[in-house]
Design goal:
about 400 residues, Aspartate Aminotransferase, domain 2, about 40% helix, transaminase activity, 2 domains, PyrdxlP-dep_Trfase, binds pyridoxal-5'-phosphate, NHTrfase_class1_PyrdxlP-BS, aminotransferase, alpha/beta, pyridoxal phosphate binding
Length: about 400
């Protein structure tokens, strides 16, 4: 009998959809050859990092100053945070100082730092379905309780439902826009209203309710859409983001938090975030990557390819007769399934198409398709989608 915690066994079961599809994909690729499998299961950017990343990395590798690979302040190098403060100030329309920024091990590390810093046992975190699978784990890691609120039929904020879910125990409302898995971007008007709701509820309960914006896809948008700034929404805003998608560097684990410059008791919050970064064992974000991204503030990977892939994928789904809400950003489609989502994934697998059932994201009756694959793979899946739809609707 293994000594693995019962809770971890239950977690492994809960998180098994993406893993199952991933394992299925590996098996099928070994059996049929990688070019014969249409794998849309994993959101791992396949676009290369921008050429300047390699130039900067080569230059940094030459630097042999003593201490350059040593420990540093837990929040990160001040000059790196300064560079980010400048750029984010322009993006968010507020004036950040380096002290408002904390460098993290990706957005995932940043979210764990936030929850460690803010949550007492039993505090509630509102998440919106469908959601990024890992949220439940991150919240549980720090003794919080996830409270799931549905979005509307087009995956927009359901403000009434959020308002009804707010209690004296609500510590955080976590949003993700552009969204994984739907690609939705929340409108500026709905976000303003959300901020008003949170501030009003906080006053009523005598608490602080923080709006946490998880936004690693901010720079991947389609059809001229824009992602509204979050800082004007409420002074209790914290942004968690990363370079995983912007520079196509998810394996390098480099991200950041930005705290509203006018947040009440900001020093205490930033102190707690910084301590959390240390005692969660991250200690600090990777030194080399911090120095690299400081020089890559207005640089991006060739993320325009995702827009072309979206066109190809929409055509494939239209021809197969699938319904979906056109994503405004990120690199996912979340179409409806005409039958049970797991059953539909089985039909797709028979066509060597790998998708993840929507129930893995808290919304059955859908599938998530990640378009981190070549356009040819997307186009090549067309007949398979048609046959799966025909089998499902016969
Ligand atoms: N949040 C969302 C919505 C994501 O989709 C991901 C990764 O796919 C993350 C956070 C984690 O990003 P990072 O690699 O920056 O930790």
């Amino acid at each position: 009998m293994s000594g693995v915690a019962k809770k971890m066994k239950a977690f492994a079961e809960k998180s098994s959809w993406i893993r199952k599809m991933f394992e299925e994909g590996a098996k099928m690729k070994a059996e049929f050859g990688p070019d014969k499998v249409f794998d849309f299961s994993i959101g791992n950017p396949d676009v290369p990092p921008p050429p300047k990343f390699y130039t900067v990395l080569r230059e940094l590798a030459q630097d042999e100053q003593p201490g350059i690979h040593g420990y540093m302040p837990n929040a990160g190098y001040p000059f790196v945070r300064e560079a980010l403060a400048g750029r984010l100030g322009g993006e968010q329309g507020v004036s950040f100082s380096a002290n408002d920024i904390l460098m993290t091990c990706g957005a995932a590390g940043g979210l764990n730092v936030i929850f460690k810093a803010l949550l007492d046992p039993g505090d509630e975190v509102i998440i919106l379905a469908p959601f990024f699978v890992e949220y439940h784990f991150y919240i549980d890691n720090h003794g919080g309780v996830a409270k799931v609120v549905a979005t509307d039929s087009e995956f927009n904020l359901d403000l009434k439902a959020i308002e009804a879910a707010l209690t004296a125990k609500t510590k955080v409302v976590l949003i993700n826009s552009p969204n994984n898995p739907t690609g939705q971007i929340y409108s500026a008007a709905s976000l303003r209203e959300l901020g008003r709701l949170l501030d009003t509820a906080g006053e009523r309960f005598g608490t602080s309710i923080y709006l946490v914006s998880d936004e690693p896809y901010r720079n991947i948008v389609f059809d001229g859409n824009e992602v509204p700034a979050l800082m004007p929404v409420t002074t209790n805003t914290i942004i968690a983001s990363s370079y995983s998608k912007e520079l196509s560097l998810p394996g390098e684990r480099i991200g950041y938090l930005a705290v509203h410059p006018e947040m009440a008791e900001k020093e205490a919050v930033i102190g707690a975030l910084t301590l959390a970064n240390r005692i969660l064992g991250f200690v600090n974000a990777p030194a080399l990557m911090q120095r690299a991204v400081a020089q890559l503030q207005n640089v991006s990977a060739e993320n325009s390819v995702y827009a072309r892939r979206l066109e190809v994928f929409c055509k494939v789904l239209d021809e197969a007769g699938m319904s979906y809400v056109r994503p405004k950003g990120a690199f996912y489609l979340f179409p409806q399934t005409p039958i049970d989502d797991v059953e539909f994934c089985r039909l797709l697998t028979a066509e060597k198409i790998l998708a993840v059932p929507g129930r893995g994201f808290g919304l059955p009756g859908h599938i998530r398709l990640a378009f981190c694959v070549d356009e040819k793979v997307i186009a090549g899946s067309s007949e398979g989608f048609k046959r799966a739809m025909a089998a499902a609707t016969q």
